Amino acid sequence: MRTFADVTVTAYDGAVSIIFQKLCKKLRSVRKQYTLLAAGFVSGNVLVYNITDKKVRIIEDPGPIYAVRIFDSDRIAYSRGDTIYIHQLQENEDDFSVFTMNSYGKRLFELKGHTSIVYALQYLDGVLYSASYDRTVRAWNLDTRALLWSYEYQASVYDIMLSCNSRIVIGGELHNSKSSVEMLDTRTGQLIYSVSDHKALIYRILCTKEFIITLGFDRVIVRDKDLEFIREFAPAKHYSAAMIDDEILATSHEGNEIGVWNIRTGKCVTRIPQKTASLVYSGIPGKLYVADYDGNVMLLDVFTQQKEDLFKCGSMTRVLNIY
């Protein structure tokens, strides 16, 4: 088991500590192979970036796009308003870029049933899970297009995540001055555990092999697999987050900077000045795909803080997803 407990913070001027650089070199051989990056935009459209050939393709939609989930190499789900669209990714005969008006792939079908904005999507074994502002989490069989179950949360749901034990973890808006983290059975939608310790809305949820991390507009809380409290840190509003490693967390603070944290100690490793609307781990050790509020999507190295511009759309990127 790798440990980052000996990381020390040398400064908060945006520079990555030398100790952090040396430590992260150990992770250079740990790599996940991703092939596609999808971005959904406030003004509409989903852009699909092929990581291998570095080509950008567009799925035209008037938008705004709230959630995107690539669930296999050929299909993607995204939400506009209360409707979920299932789209097939296929190569068109003509090679085109983001600036053309051709639309990539074809729409397969729609899933209707939510009565308000769908904010999050997850996928497991042929089932798509959706979370909505209408206070419900729903499970859909993608083969039959049937609704399997619907669960009503205490308030609007902003995020859902699959835990390491294949359960659904959900979080959202305040109710009676607190926001609850709830765990559901993926097969039945039955409630298993519930805890209420955030004092502001829960905006993001992340899961590792050992931990469940909930990020609210008040702080970050690390929990075990049964939602038992372990520690809290980073009092701030957190808009987006990604795990760089099983123990290293990157979050966007107030949208103005990226903080890198050791979740085992709760200590900050470094801070990076970067306005961030959404971020996701790239699969390359120490590197994140980052989208800013102007529609720029880039690859950011948290070791050196160097950025590689990938593509740009004319409006804010609401969500990033990688496959």
Can you walk me through this structure?
- This protein is an all-beta fold and 323 residues long.
- It has 1 helix and 28 strands.
- The longest helix has 7 residues, at 18-24.
Major sheet size, sense and barrel closure: 4 strands, antiparallel
Class inferred from helices and paired strands: mainly beta
Question: Please, what is the CATH homologous superfamily?
Answer: YVTN repeat-like/Quinoprotein amine dehydrogenase
CATH topology: Methylamine Dehydrogenase, Chain H
Unreliable residue stretches: 1-16, 93-101
Task: Give the second-level CATH assignment, the architecture.
Answer: 7 Propeller
The mean pLDDT is 86
- Count the DSSP helices: 1
Whole-number count of domains: 1
Please state the overall shape, judged from the principal axes of the Cα atoms.
globular
Number of strands: 28
Order of helices and strands: HEEEEEEEEEEEEEEEEEEEEEEEEEEEE
The CATH class turns out to be: Mainly Beta
Q: Span from first to last CA?
A: 26 Å
Strand content: over 45%
The strands making up the biggest β-sheet line up spatially as 3-2-1-28
Rg, Å, rounded: 19 Å
Q: What level of helicity do the residues show?
A: under 10%
Q: What oligomeric arrangement do these chains adopt?
A: single chain
